[in-house]
Amino acid sequence: MPQYLQKRRQGWYCVVEVPRSLRVKLGKPRFIQSLQTDSLKVAEVRKHAFVAQWKAEIEAARGSSTNLDRVVLVRQKMTAKVKPDPTELALILSPQSKEDLKELEQNRHELLAVLHGKKFPLKHHLSDYEKTLNHLEAKSKDMRMSDIKRFLKKFKCAEDATNREVKDWVEQTLIAEDGLSVATCRRIVSNLRQYWKYLVDKKDLKLSEPFKDVVPARTMTRKQEVAQRRRHFEPDDYQKLLEASQEKEDAQLSNLIQLGAFTGCRIEELCSLKLESAKDDRILIEDAKTETGWRTVPLHDDLIDLVASMKKESKDGYLISGLSYNKYGDRSNAIGKRFGKLKLKLGYGSNLVFHSFRKGVTTQWERLGIAENVSANLLGHDIPTMTYGLYSGNKLDFALLKETINKLKWQKTALHIRNSSHDQTDNLESLRFLNGLIRVQ
């Protein structure tokens, strides 16, 4: 049976049991309310408001709630359709200790403002809101809750969060003091909008959201913006990073760098790759976030022996063996930090990260004139065109994909020059040979 729900006749009821020690004080053994639906899915959503209110009443009766908690509870009862009992309200509002009485006297005006609906406390509905975020991934959920809690440290009541005050908070606290980027501030404000909308829709907040134009358009010059954009790795960078990882005798990191450079895969795609998805001539990316991310990537000729060796040495069923999961289920977190320390030690800034190998792969293919639908297929990108994106089956010949992968060259620039000189020498020899044949004829 779902928690706090009972099926009675053809409908669902919300039920919360009152602790035995509080039943006399509250005058009932349990709280019960019809949810006016026979749908379990709808009942699961509707129950939260009742459960939160009843638990608040239990805490008030137990004496473990604050004055503000109890005032918010009474305000909710006053705005409900059913007129509350005055004696019940008085009982809830009664201070539970000398500390409560002292705090009540100190904050009387603010508490009265909340009681009469002139102020709307923001934090008291946060736990209810968190329960509605189960559709988000754990990392996204934690980030949203963290953003909202950051906001609530500054603004306790909705009335305090005027557009001017929020704008000053963004510019002076988030950007100037905390050093956050404009993009991060936009994400924070976007999450705050979601919480505010919830309060308006579900908790009777009457104020419109105060977030319009609170994030500045730009905090740096265009020249600075261009300098901070993420760049791609060149072959010399690859060799430098690979040699540094091998000098540290970090086999995991060395293998990861080679895999990233010769496949263009994301770091988590590689770190979560299981042995059954690593074939002799290809790897299968089957746990991507989007449908187009599920793809087959042929192994570059320079990776064949490495992957075979990694498969043979693996002790945990993963191609990159020995990594551990973080609390969000990612295996790339720790090794990603090791790569970050390595590249910083070599003098690479924040605009060059592991993802820069993926950008480097794209750059090489663009220089070679590789068709975009081919590179998109290998990288797991959407194809935006009508013909290849909408009508095509998007299944390219493996031989074509293999040929494209093998065009990636990560040797040092000097090696490119030596190869080019050698090719020119071969061409001259061929020309001399042909001239000799012509003279003989």
Automatic annotation (TrEMBL):
* Pfam families reported in the protein's UniProt record: DUF6538, Phage_integrase
* Keyword set includes Cytoplasm: no
Q: Which domain of life is it from?
A: Bacteria
Looking at the record, the residues that make up the Tyr recombinase domain are 228-406
Q: Which UniProt keywords apply?
A: DNA integration, DNA recombination, DNA-binding
**Cross-referenced InterPro entries, in alphabetical order?**
DNA_brk_join_enz, DUF6538, Integrase-like_cat_sf, Integrase_catalytic, Integrase_recombinase_N, Tyrosine_recombinase_XerCD
- Family per record: Belongs to the 'phage' integrase family.
Database matches in PANTHER family: INTEGRASE_RECOMBINASE PROTEIN MJ0367-RELATED, PHAGE INTEGRASE-RELATED
Q: What is this protein called?
A: Tyrosine-type recombinase/integrase
